[in-house]
Amino acid sequence: MTLGVLLGLVLSCLFLLSLWRQSSERRKLPPGPTPLPIIGNILQVDLKDISKSLKNLSKVYGPVFTLYLGRKPAVVLYGYESVKEALIDNGEEFAGRGSIPVFDKINKGLGIVFSNGRNWKAMRRFSLMALRNFGMGKRSIEDRVQEEARCLVEELRKTNGSPCDPTFILGCAPCNVICSIVFQNRFDYKDKDFLNLMNNLNKNVEILSTPWIQICNNFPAIIDYLPGRHRELLENFTFLKHYFLAKMIEHQESLDINNPRDFIDCFLIKMDQNNPKTEFTCENLIFSAGDLFAAGTETTSTTLRYSLLLLLKHPEVTAKVQKEIDHVIGRHRSPSMQDRSHMPYTDAVLHEIQRYIDLLPTSLPHAVTCDIKFRNYLIPKGTTVIASMSSVLHDDKEFPNPERFDPGHFLDENGKFKKSDYFVPFSTGKRICVGEGLARMELFLFLTTILQNFNLKSPVDLKDLDTSPVNNGFVSVPPEFQICFTPI
């Protein structure tokens, strides 16, 4: 027998073994399309529009189905009922974080967003406490957001009503809020260190939204052995790691345990408690700070950018919001969170913006923390779970004509604001976004302050304004556009 024939037999046996193991595994899991060896169902998923692919597959296989992303299965939850049953009714069992190889390479399971078990619970609990009780009796987070809203207005005035791309300016505002929470101080919009930080964060979101990163996550061997934009992503995260390490060292040198100034100080005080088993380590501090920046800067700035695009496209909506601002707030004081309850139309518009843009179509992957029987299927411990937030936010029974931008989705027949359990832009269950409260505050205060001070004008015909995302993978990225901020 020649070496070539022997090699062929070995490869054939491995191929058949792979098929047998896959078939045996699939019998216990929910139904789904037949996967190919090694590549799984990757050819049945449009990496530029994953939401559309999941919608089409759910029509064939139902609200709970299995999709092979590479060689590993993922259970997909499609529709409000299945998402609620898993993430809320069985919240503890579905509270794990699914593997994302690109992030696993960077974070090593540390921080808030990508950690699991005891580490995740400790980091999440601490971060929630820090965000809720921040300042130890000093300035509240609302004060900081209001200050940044005023700075944002001053920057927009410098455009002199000329057409501009608002991406950078809108990114600076939420980034500075996070800076003030994590580092104590905000930065001037022209500060070189700040510009480097902003550029790094912007690049990361752009790269993460490309189909190439979806391929890297499905075939992790690529990360180590092939060139590509994932290399740039890894370099950017290395820059951020060194940036936060330098800030930590600065804080250690000036720390007063009786007078904590910010998130880093509070974390350093917890680190100083001489517990060898503590989760409060230098690395966890660096990655937790990084998670706050990544989650608190780009998601909010992208939502703000998309908000202005939709308000440009729908001037009748903008006019109604400005009328409500005039009636409730006026022109001579800054908007506050107390105003929101008296502004039902504005509240409905903000909710509809987040529902319509569907910023994180599949949120971040979950994983089951133990073997669980779910809808008569056995899902083994560690299995990745993908919850389609798009299927909830665009449910046509809850939101008639879900593909249409309509603030009426959140208003009752009397024009009062109407809550909806289907409003899940921050995910739901145990893994709901830590910064939800801050993000909602920023969206309200930034947008109302902008509309209090400026009329919005498009330099192109409104018919030519496209509101469709240019990428719909990890994040729904809005198209580039120009806008004029005309002082009122």
Could you describe the 3D structure shown?
The mean pLDDT is 89. With 488 residues, this protein is of the alpha+beta class. The N and C termini lie far apart (86 Å). Helices cover 51% and strands 8% of the residues. The strands form 4 sheets. A 5-stranded mixed β-sheet has the order 1-2-7-4-3. Strands 5-6 form a two-stranded antiparallel sheet. A two-stranded antiparallel sheet has the order 8-11. It is globular and about 80 Å long. Its EC number is 1.14.14.1. Keywords: Endoplasmic reticulum, Heme, Iron, Membrane, Metal-binding, Microsome, Monooxygenase, Oxidoreductase, Signal. Its main location: endoplasmic reticulum.
Give the helices and strands, then pairings.
Blueprint (H helix, E strand, L loop, with lengths): L2 H24 L23 H12 L2 E6 L2 E7 L1 H10 L6 E2 L3 H7 L9 H16 L8 H17 L9 H16 L9 H17 L2 H8 L2 H5 L3 H26 L8 H9 L10 H32 L1 H14 L15 H14 L8 E2 L4 E3 L2 E3 L4 E5 H5 L42 H18 E4 L13 E2 L3 E2 L6 E4 L1
Parallel strand pairs: 2-7
Antiparallel strand pairs: 1-2, 3-4, 4-7, 5-6, 8-11, 9-10
Helix pairs in contact: 6-7, 6-17, 7-13, 8-11, 11-13, 13-15, 13-17
Keywords: Endoplasmic reticulum, Heme, Iron, Membrane, Metal-binding, Microsome, Monooxygenase, Oxidoreductase, Signal
Main location: endoplasmic reticulum
Subcellular location: Endoplasmic reticulum membrane; Microsome membrane
